[in-house]
Structures are given as structure tokens and as C-alpha cells.
Design brief:
By secondary structure, this protein is an alpha/beta fold. Helices cover 40% and strands 16% of the residues. Helix 3 packs parallel to helix 12, helix 4 runs parallel beside helix 5 and helix 14 crosses helix 16. The structure holds 4'-deoxy-4'-aminopyridoxal-5'-phosphate.
């Protein structure tokens, strides 16, 4: 078996059919599929080790705790955090970002008149929590434009001149995406962190898409926070990671109160647990957390293969040609120099929702709509676009099937 056949054999779902045709799953940016090693562990934990973690002294609880903490340590190694204390396990990227926004506001690190700097291409998960922090504190959002749709260039890049200028307008926090889930272009996050740090401004990176397709080293990036979800990188839903620098996690107040996040509790006073448990109130999703271990090890194994890099290049080239062959199709950030295999596009005379529904009848799963990034999709795509997003398990043959299905869809729908 070659590289690709081996990978595909690990994903039971890739063998299924939709509408009588082999499934072509191109909605990976919404959630990826899970390999057998993850599915097997999920089942084993429920069958043999189900217990609440960190609490009891019985065997099952010890075992469950060990699996949970192994998930945390794997996440630490995967992003090269200095210590596993800096890895907070959350419900997903959304919860990770809410945690930081809420705790920064409540801890007084963002106050009245302060700016919170975002890019124009953020996901709702990296907009709304900051708006809520603004409402609480009297801070305001500063938004940096990206080059796509109507601007001179269409490479999806953040306007760095505007970024530098905005940093100097009383900004107290930067929250930017590593890779936008609409544009697919990789942002120069290391440079953005350095520019912000030169002015003493902390930076959160939304890594929900970036973690899947780029090697992330948080010590080298020097970011203060890095947030991502397990389910976009082979793990189950309901688990996320928040990396936070020790100094920040120690000085932020807790997020939620409850069991597991405390040292001692009395009606007069509660002392909180040390990091990271200070941020992990209540019964954790221990099965999903434990599955971070096989999921991230699987991702690391693929990433270390030269075949994977070669395959991604081929996917990108094939998709570029396929999309270019459709008359009236416009691709966001088409000229990005560094992109992940993700493309959002519009087609003249074809409504994205109609197209997504029709192409599904041909076995192809695409995403449509505003894709939880309404501000940018409204500006560049009239409020609704189509998106195709690939993982290493997607083949060049699938790209061909997608191309033919898209051509047929356009013929049938174009008015
Ligand atoms: N940020 C980006 C860039 C995303 O693509 C997503 C998921 N679409 C999120 C944040 C939120 O992730 P989740 O829903 O898993 O919390």
C-alpha cells in the first residue's frame, strides 16, 4: 500500500457511500474524520475505564486520570509547550477563547478605553467573546483589514501597515487567527507576536485551522495563548486546548467555579487549585481528552512523512486547476503564497446553498453559508460562499470527482 492508501485504510468512514456514490468529504475545516486508533480508544475507555478523574482513590479513577493526563502531555509535546501546566483542557477552541477574554476582562487586564485588536477575517469564536469583554469593561474592538475581495491584491494577507498603526492606538490585547477558516492563507503570526510584544501587548492566536496543517511551536512563536479544538485534528468533539504562558495563567482569575478547580473550600473563602486545574471546573470530558493522545500522535506521524508534504502540494495544485476551470468562479485569497488546502469561493449566478445541496446528491460534502465568519464573508462573498477543505486522506481522484460534480452543478443551477 502506498502512503495514501495506508492513511485511508485508517478511516472507516471513508468507505461509506452517500446517495449511492463513494463519499467525497471536503468539509474537513468544520470537523475532520477520526482514525481507527482514536475510535478504538474511545470505545475502550467507555468499556473498561469509565470513572471520574482526579477524585477517587479506586483503580478505575486512577486509570481514567492517567489517560486524561496523557492527553494533556501529548498536547504539550505537540505544540512544544515548556510545561504541561501550561495546557488547559477545555471544551474546544471556542471555550478556550472565551476563557481568555472573560478572565482578562474580569482580572482587570482590559479596561475602559482599551483596544482589542482583531483581524477582519476572524471566526465568530474570536469576535463575540471579545465583544462581550468590551461590553463588560468599556474597551473597544480595533479591526485590521485583510487583502481579499475588492482590494488590489487577493492573497488573504493581513495589512501589516494597518496592524502596526492599530497597535499604537491604545491596544491592550491582540487576538488573531493563525489561518482564517475562510481564506486559508497562513498569517505571519510570529512576526505579529513580535510586533505586539515590542509594545508590551499580549497575543492570543486562534489556531483552530492552523494547528491542523502547520507545525506549531508555541515557544518559538512566543505567543501568550494558543487555542485549538481536538475535533478538527482527528480527535473527538468536546475537547479543546488552551495553551497559556505560565505567568499569564497564574495571574488570571479562574474561569468557572466548581469541583476540581479548588484547593480548599469553606463558606468564607475558597482557595483555588494550581494551574492548569484552576481552569478545569467540573467533570471533564475525559474520554475525548484522552483521545488527544492517539489523535495528535497520528497527526505528528503524518506530518513527519515527506509524502504528506508532497501530497499537500499536489492537492493544492489540482484544486487550483479545478477551480480555475469553472467559468465565473471567484476564489478568496487565490493568490496566497502560503495556504492550507482550504478554498472559499463564489460562482456567478449560482446560490451557494443550492449548489451545496445539489452537489451533496452527487456524494460530495461541501460547506456553504457564512461559515461562522459573517463579517468577512459578507464583505467578500455577499454573505454566503462555498468552501472545500481537505485533509491528507483526500485523494486527487476525489478532486476530479468534485470538479466534475461542480461543473454539473453549475450547469444545472446557473441562471
Ligand atoms: N476559529 C476558527 C478559525 C475555526 O475555524 C473554528 C471552527 N470552525 C473555531 C474557531 C471554533 O472552533 P470550535 O467550534 O471547535 O470551538
Amino acid at each position: 500500500m502506498n502512503f495514501l492508501q495506508q492513511i485511508r485504510a485508517d478511516f472507516p468512514i471513508l468507505g461509506r457511500k452517500v446517495e449511492g456514490r463513494p463519499l467525497v468529504y471536503f468539509d474537513n475545516a468544520a470537523t475532520s474524520q477520526r482514525p481507527a486508533c482514536v475510535l478504538d480508544l474511545q470505545q475502550k475507555l467507555c468499556k473498561e475505564h469509565n470513572a471520574n478523574i482526579h477524585r477517587a482513590v479506586h483503580t478505575l479513577s486512577y486509570e481514567a486520570t492517567d489517560y486524561y493526563e496523557a492527553g494533556r502531555r501529548t498536547a504539550q509535546r505537540f505544540i512544544n509547550a515548556e510545561s504541561s501546566d501550561e495546557i488547559v483542557l477545555t471544551g474546544g477552541a471556542t471555550m478556550s477563547i472565551n476563557l481568555v477574554a472573560e478572565c482578562m476582562a474580569r482580572g482587570g487586564f482590559i479596561g475602559s478605553g482599551d483596544g482589542i485588536l482583531l483581524s477582519e477575517a476572524e471566526h465568530h469564536s474570536n469576535i463575540v467573546p471579545w465583544q462581550m469583554a468590551c461590553q463588560r469593561t468599556g474597551a473597544h474592538l480595533e479591526v485590521v483589514p485583510v487583502r481579499a475581495g475588492g482590494s488590489d491584491a487577493n492573497d488573504g494577507g493581513v495589512d501589516m501597515e494597518a496592524y502596526r498603526a492599530a497597535l499604537r492606538r491604545g491596544v491592550k490585547m491582540v487576538a488573531v487567527t493563525h489561518v482564517s477558516n475562510i481564506l486559508g492563507a497562513v498569517n505571519p503570526v510570529k512576526e505579529m507576536v513580535a510586533e505586539a510584544h515590542a509594545l508590551g501587548i499580549p497575543v492570543l492566536i486562534d489556531g483552530a485551522q492552523g494547528i491542523v496543517h502547520r507545525k506549531v511551536d508555541v515557544q518559538s512563536l512566543d505567543c501568550d495563548f494558543y487555542a485549538f479544538s481536538g475535533h478538527k485534528i482527528y480527535a473527538p468533539t468536546g475537547i479543546g486546548v488552551l495553551y497559556g504562558k505560565r505567568e499569564w495563567l497564574e495571574k488570571l482569575p479562574p474561569f468557572m467555579g466548581g469541583g476540581d478547580m479548588v484547593a480548599t473550600v469553606s463558606f468564607e473563602k475558597t482557595e483555588y487549585a494550581d494551574i492548569p486545574l484552576k481552569f478545569e471546573a467540573g467533570t471533564a470530558n475525559f474520554v475525548a481528552a484522552a483521545c488527544l493522545a492517539p489523535a495528535l500522535e497520528y497527526a505528528a506521524k503524518i506530518a513527519s512523512s515527506p509524502d504528506a508534504a508532497e501530497h499537500e502540494k499536489k492537492q493544492i495544485e489540482a484544486m487550483k486547476q479545478t477551480l480555475a476551470s469553472i467559468d465565473g468562479l471567484w476564489v478568496a485569497a487565490a493568490d496566497a503564497e502560503d495556504r492550507i488546502p482550504l478554498w472559499s469561493f463564489t460562482i456567478d449566478g449560482v446560490h451557494p446553498l443550492d449548489a451545496a445541496m445539489l452537489i451533496d446528491k452527487m456524494g460530495v460534502a461541501l460547506r456553504s453559508g457564512h461559515m461562522c465568519a459573517e463579517p468577512i464573508v459578507r464583505r467578500i462573498g455577499g454573505g454566503s460562499m462555498l468552501r472545500a477543505s481537505l485533509m491528507p486522506y483526500n485523494t486527487l481522484e476525489e478532486i476530479e470527482v468534485f470538479g466534475k460534480a461542480l461543473e454539473r452543478t453549475v450547469k444545472l443551477l446557473r441562471r
